[in-house]
Specification:
It catalyses: a (3S)-3-hydroxyacyl-CoA + NAD(+) = a 3-oxoacyl-CoA + NADH + H(+). Helix 1 (28-43) packs parallel to helix 3 and helix 20 (508-515) crosses helix 21. By secondary structure, the chain is α/β, with parallel strands linked by helices. The protein is globular, with a radius of gyration of 28 Å. The structure holds 1,4-dihydronicotinamide adenine dinucleotide. 1,4-dihydronicotinamide adenine dinucleotide binds next to helix 13, helix 15 and strand 17.
């Protein structure tokens, strides 16, 4: 796993190369190999001038061994402590070796990979477009526990380490890492990187870590008066939610900064073990590593060979059309965007994008993605207009967020090639793509849409057609629940607060304003039209009153549940109180929180039972990436599976708040 080679100058290169794996991780093979390499370095110390640590893989080092971490139980705590102590002990023996040690970071160094690099005295990163450095641990419910917290704090200072690296989970380009001071130099070729590494070694025979030098102080110091404020600041940043990973990262950093290096390392290990053996890290690893890998790997992609897309037509240069065009162009696909006038079309202009009002310019496109107004007749017309012009077998995709695909497909001559490709706004930032399969959509169309989604860097879930598909339907359920609470007389600030406390990124009333109440109303009316037994809820009256009576359809009009001034929320609308039932009702906070989490989980279970969802993985990933279901749950269906008594609690909520909570 680690090749040890010494040259004539006495410089040893340790090349990490886990056999049979695509990337290096901190698995058992690595641990044994690293110990052996460090033993040998110490044994041969007299003949060693310095050490270069690099990798033979495309990436430098991928980080922790997540499959084994995901299995950790509380009984494993002693073994985990021993393992982490070994890993950290070897890093420590490397950084106190008494010879310069340089990390030659030839590709991505994330999590444990960055920790390997931090245990070196000098870091040179290869400045290639794909290289990223960061600590994604917090996004998996973990903390960088192989010295990552301890060293980053000592290198950058408490506040920069926390707010830039440890608590964000962000992945930085090498140039940003250089600016922040976590790497020391960049190189543009592997050869240049190795030359720089050798030169640095020869120029710095006395290399040591700053914290091992006399008189070392943490950068920025530790103003005692500020320390107690950290937890409160974090609480504010988390909007009141209580999440173990950020809390433990903060505790590790603040406690560790006040003690010596070795004690800080033990504190870090203990906090990591608490996270590792708990449920939330398992949920998050389950969703964001395992489910994600399955979904992106094509779990729901039919196993058929299809030609790759070569030229994309986007219809509509509005917010979504422009975003979709940019995403395709960024992936190197030629794109033609059509709108009704050249001026409107020009709004989507950008590198690799041609804009036009002339349908003839779409000749030869083998993918059409339609993003015109949400109007079925208009959508039918634009497809009829472009079909004679584009490639005879072009994939025909609609970005509709609410209109059933099977119905739209009836308007085109080739329904087998018709599919939903539901992107999320803003397209450049949102990682999810919901592929919607109509009753007559072919497997080849699904595979083509899936491959296109992957090519432009999206995570594509595949769902069957239905009202609101999966994401719009379930987010509608969340919003409905909040509006129902409002109708019951629960104060609007309590509703928003309960959701934030449960871990949602945005309060549901603010969200309703964003997506617009007109859309919420439209999806619900489709349900009503389709079923005689559809439960009419007080929330429905309230939405109708907001849209039809008070003309407050949401943010785009500047009037919704919130009042807006200059695009910003200025406060809740003061007429809201008048919409509640006069009796009012006091609902405990725990019930408010659970009503959100359960309403969505039960609806997702119904989606699975009805076949709207084809796999649980798609449901979990779609809920986290697309509609803001709290990531700590591991996704909407895992929440139901992992809850101690999901059915019991659902039955309790059903008795108190209505049949929609009845266990599925
Ligand atoms: P938009 O109103 O920003 O853009 C629609 C564009 O279509 C306009 O530029 C309009 O001039 C153009 N258009 C109208 N008739 C046309 C025609 N005959 N040929 C070519 N272009 C024509 O709307 P937005 O928000 O971009 O939404 C577009 C579609 O995407 C809708 O179906 C919507 O439901 C869906 N969607 C919207 C999301 C959002 O967050 N806004 C999210 C996901 C899907």
């Amino acid at each position: 796993m680690i090749t040890y080679s010494r040259d004539d100058d006495g410089i040893v290169t340790l090349t990490l190369d886990d056999p049979g794996q695509s990337a290096n991780t901190m698995n058992a093979t690595y641990v044994a190999a690293m110990s052996a390499a460090v033993d040998r370095l110490h044994a041969e110390r007299d003949t060693v001038t310095g050490v270069i640590v690099t990798s033979a893989k495309k990436t430098f080092f991928a980080g922790g061994d997540l499959p084994s971490m995901a299995r950790a139980t509380p009984e494993d705590a002693p073994a985990l402590f021993k393992l982490l102590s070994t890993i950290k002990g070897d890093f420590r023996r490397l950084e106190t070796y008494g010879r310069p040690v340089v990390a030659a970071i030839n590709g991505a160094a994330l999590g444990g990979g960055l920790e390997v690099a931090l245990a070196c005295h000098h870091r040179i990163a290869l400045d290639t477009p794909g290289t990223r450095l960061g600590f994604p641990e917090v996004t998996l419910g973990l903390l960088p526990g192989a010295g990552g917290v301890t060293r980053t704090v000592r290198m950058l200072g408490l506040a920069p380490a926390l707010t830039t690296w440890l608590l964000t989970g962000r992945r930085y380009r090498p140039a940003d890492a250089l600016a922040h001071g976590l790497v020391d130099a960049l190189a543009s070729t592997p050869a240049e990187m190795l030359t720089q590494a050798r030169e640095w070694i020869l120029a710095n025979p006395d290399a040591a870590q700053p914290w091992d030098r006399e008189g070392y102080r943490i950068p920025g110091g530790l103003p005692a008066a500020q320390l107690p404020a950290y937890p409160a600041t974090l609480r504010k940043q988390l909007k009141g939610a209580s999440l173990p990973a950020p809390e433990k990262i903060l505790a590790t950093a603040v406690e560790g900064a006040q003690v010596d290096f070795e004690t800080a390392q033990v504190i870090e290990t203990r906090h990591l073990i608490t996270l590792l053996t708990g449920r939330i890290a398992k949920n998050m690893i389950g969703a964001l590593f395992f489910d994600m890998r399955a979904v992106n790997g094509g779990l729901a992609r039919p196993a058929v060979e299809v030609p790759p897309a070569t030229r994309v037509a986007v219809l509509g240069a509005g917010m979504m059309g422009a975003g979709i065009a940019q995403a395709c162009a960024k992936a190197g696909l030629p794109v033609v965007v059509k709108d009704v006038t050249p001026e409107l079309a020009a709004r989507a202009a950008g590198p690799g994008i041609t804009t036009t009002a002339d349908v003839a310019d779409l000749a030869g496109c083998d993918v059409v993605i339609e993003a015109v107004f949400e109007d079925p007749a208009l959508k039918r017309d634009v497809f009829a207009e472009v079909l004679p012009v584009v490639a005879p077998d072009a994939l025909l995709a609609s970005n509709t967020s609410t209109l059933p695909i099977t119905g739209l497909a009836e308007g085109v001559s080739r329904p087998g090639d018709f599919i939903g490709m539901h992107f999320f706004s803003p397209v450049g930032k949102m990682p999810l793509l919901e592929i919607v399969v109509g009753a007559r959509t072919s497997d080849a169309a699904v595979a083509r849409a899936f491959d296109l989604g992957r090519r432009i860097g999206k995570t594509p879930i595949v769902v069957n057609d239905g009202r609101g598909f999966f994401t719009s339907r379930v987010i509608g359920t969340f919003i409905d629940e909040a509006i129902g609470m409002l109708a019951e007389g629960v104060p609007a600030p309590s509703i928003e607060h309960a959701a934030l406390q449960a871990g949602y990124p945005t309060g549901p009333l603010a969200l309703a304003d964003e997506v617009s109440l007109t859309l919420v109303q439209r999806i619900r009316r489709q349900f009503e039209a389709a079923s005689d037994s559809y439960e009419r809820l007080p929330s429905h009256e309230l939405v109708d009153a907001m849209v039809d009576k008070h003309d407050r359809p949401g943010r785009s009009s500047g009037r919704g549940f919130y009042a807006y001034g200059e695009e910003k929320r200025t406060g809740l609308w003061d007429g809201l109180v008048s919409l509640a039932t006069p009796e009012g009702r006091s609902v405990p906070l725990a019930d408010l929180r659970d009503r959100f989490l359960f309403a969505e989980a039960l609806d997702a279970q119904r989606c699975l039972a009805e076949g709207v969802l084809r796999t649980a993985e798609d449901g979990n990933i779609g809920s986290i990436l697309g509609i803001g279901y709290p990531a700590w749950t591991g996704g909407v269906l895992r929440f139901a599976d992992q809850h101690d008594d999901f059915r019991g609690r659902a039955a309790e909520l059903a008795a108190r708040y209505g049949d929609r909570f009845a266990p599925v």
